[in-house]
Design brief:
Elements: E1 3-13, H1 19-24, E2 26-35, H2 39-44, H3 53-66, H4 72-86, E3 92-99, E4 111-118
Antiparallel strand pairs: 1-2, 2-3, 3-4
Amino acid sequence: MDKIILEGCRFYGYHGAFSEEKTLGQIFVVDCELTVDLLAASVTDALADTVHYGHVFETIRKQAEQAKYDLIERLAGAIIEDIFAEFPPVQAIRLKVTKENPPIAGHYKAVGIELYRERP
């Protein structure tokens, strides 16, 4: 199956289990891979035959910037729920959420989670 990919989408949000995260906020990076049949779009060159990735970006932004969750697992789950609800052609979603600077001691590039869901 074909894919639509949004990589390295950056948002400032207030998700986290610690009070500092809820108060100060931080950057969240979202990578999203949508499984969609793109055969028609590859032939017709018509936006109506695909999923508009700009609209998907706005769907992700709403959850990342307007909602507040304790866990990035829940943030990712809410994003997936919204994408399935708003974009019927999407058959499966792989979504990764990372925090580059969580309030934990150590040296690392980022910490995060990845969810994979198929349309029920």
